[in-house]
Design goal:
Elements: E1 8-11, E2 19-22, H1 24-27, H2 30-45, E3 53-57, H3 60-72, E4 75-81, E5 89-96, E6 99-106, E7 115-123, H4 127-138, E8 142-151, E9 166-171
């Protein structure tokens, strides 16, 4: 299946000069969605036989991470923006192009030593994925890899990530 044909390009979003890769068209295609989840789960299972948790970042990481966790027999842990989780959290602040942001995970969600696979829809500059990896490592979990639907290779996000396997289904 040609996943690129299911991903819509939107020029000048969110600002002029940016070509946005929109996965909502992929999500609305039943066969494309099933194929994407199955393929990502298959490739992720090849990284490590045992995965305790899939972490997905707000919000499209939730969409792809939860069904991959289901397919791999792992738990799913959401990483959210600051102030969205109701219990005590671990947090990490990270740099954005125009400022900073904060990611959080519940303190009781992860235990030291558990094996984590981070899943998101897209890797661009690697900022959010890198911050999530640092958050996982701060809790003394074992980061075993990353899984992305889309990778924007020209932005070189990989170079900001730890040296673990990185899966991307579609590259631009």
């Amino acid at each position: 299946m040609d996943l690129k044909s299911l991903i819509r390009d939107i020029p000048d979003f969110p600002k002029p000069g940016i070509l946005f890769r929109d996965v909502t068209t992929l999500l609305s295609d039943p066969a494309g969605l099933r194929y994407t989840i199955d393929l990502l789960a298959q490739k992720c299972s090849e990284i490590e036989l045992e995965v305790d948790y899939i972490i997905g970042m707000e919000s499209r990481g939730f969409i792809f991470g939860a069904p991959v966790a289901y397919k791999l027999g792992a738990g799913f842990i959401p990483v959210r923006k600051k102030g969205k989780l109701p219990a005590a959290v671990h947090s990490i602040e990270y740099q954005l192009e125009y400022g900073t942001d904060t990611l959080e995970v519940h303190q009781d969600a992860l235990k030291p030593g558990c094996k984590i696979l981070i899943v998101d829809d897209l890797i661009a500059t690697g900022g959010t994925a890198s911050a999530t990896a640092k958050l996982v490592q701060k809790i003394d979990c074992e980061l075993i890899g990353f899984g992305f639907i889309i990778e924007l290779r020209d932005l070189q996000g990989r170079k900001h990530l730890p040296d673990v396997p990185i899966i991307s289904l579609v590259e631009y």
